Amino acid sequence: MNDKLIVGIADMKMAGDGEKLITYALGSCIGICLYEPRLKLAALVHIMLPLNMETGRKNAFKYADTGIRTTLREMELKGAQRAAITAKIAGGARMFEVSGGSLGNIGKRNSESVHQILRMEKIRLVWEDVGGTIARTMEFDSATGNGTIRSYGHPEIKF
Amino acid sequence: MRFWCGKGNRMEIKSYEDLSGLEIDTLKEIGSIGTGNAATALSQMIGKEVRITLPEVRIMGYNEAIEWIGGPEAITAGVLSQLGGEINGIMLSVQQMDFINLVLSNVLGRSVADFNMLQEMQISTLVEVGNIMISTFINALSGLADISIKLTVPAFAVDMQGAILTVPMAAYGGQSDYIMTIGGNFVCDNRQVPCRLLLSPDIRSLNFLLRKLGVMDE
């Protein structure tokens, strides 16, 4: 059993040859699993914010828009066909019930942005587990395009 | 890169990593006074002597911060308040199991074996302890810098600490690839107590605070 590739916060990794990807403790962040079944090419992006408005745009994977688009481009460079790529997403929770301010709805805005970008890029969203108030650890297997979600105090979910 | 203006005074910082040694020392001093006051408050609540270790000011990359707090998946309790008024920021009290039991056994006379055993009474005790520590820290800061700071009603969560720590990261993620924390650790019965009190200000507030403290000239 080879080690899983760890995807950090504001990070993306691609995997093939049956390798597994994992990203830990998605709170308001969203993990986006992109899969090209013909090549068995998997990518997992861990985004933190909905839209990239930064000058310089140094860190593409911090944001839903630049994160998803950069990943799709890198998958295509590896020979992936855009029309065959599907997406599975998890995260976008609300960790604290904070009254007022934008703090409480970052997760929701992330989720809306991910949906919109996927729609604009014509990527089919085949599965999602977003919202709620729990943190999720997401694991993604490049051999099958399936994965699992682990949370504290909840049964494991397979997707 | 450093920017200097007319009379040799430094202009505002644009990112946490622009902070000078003097500015960091000033923030450490705030951390020391804030945490010291919080330790006194904690000591009164649990009826035991509580000391503090040297305060730290850390400027960390996201993933570095998660490792520093002890890995992403460890379960902890977090009490969070948002700062408003003259400065904006987030203050977090991150409470690991040993701290929770230190509080519960001394305040309620009963400890718990796991986070899922926490009931309403215990949770409101933890929120209150977190709230008092955060408020004492902020009162000290507000007195020191002569600024008015409002705190929101504290919110509570028990979950993976990675997801708890990303709350301040995401709040200021549009401004920086780093998170800045000012805080310290507590020592009780000669043992380090796993509770961190972390203040994460946004960049604008940090500039304002440093100017108010006279470290950064106007």
CATH topology of chain B: Chemotaxis protein chec
> Between the first and last Cα atoms of chain B, what is the distance in angstroms?
20 Å
Total helical segments of chain B: 6
Rg calc of chain A: 15 Å
CATH homology-level superfamily of chain B: CheC-like
Approximate strand percentage of chain B: 25-35%
Task: List its salient traits.
heterodimer, A: 159 residues, alpha+beta, 60s Ribosomal Protein L30, Chain: A, five-stranded mixed β-sheet, globular, B: 218 residues, Chemotaxis protein chec, five-stranded antiparallel β-sheet, three-stranded antiparallel β-sheet, 10 strands, disordered N terminus
Plain-language structure description:
The complex is a heterodimer of chains A (159) and B (218). Chain A has a single domain (5-153), classed as 60s Ribosomal Protein L30, Chain: A, CATH 3.30.1330.200. Chain A is 18% helix and 36% strand. Chain A is built from two helices and ten strands. Chain A is globular. By secondary structure, chain B is α+β, with helices and mostly antiparallel strands. Helix content of chain B is 43%, strand content 25%. In chain B, the strands form three sheets. In chain B, strands 3, 4, 5, 6 and 10 form a five-stranded antiparallel β-sheet that branches. In chain B, strands 1-8-9 form a three-stranded antiparallel β-sheet. The model of chain B is unreliable at 1-8 (pLDDT under 50). The A-B interface holds A 8-11, 24-29, 48-49, 53-54, 58-59, 62, 93, 95-103, 106, 133-135, 137, 152-153 and B 62-63, 66, 72-73, 75, 78, 80, 82, 90, 115-116, 152-153, 155-164, 166-167, 169-171, 173-174, 177.
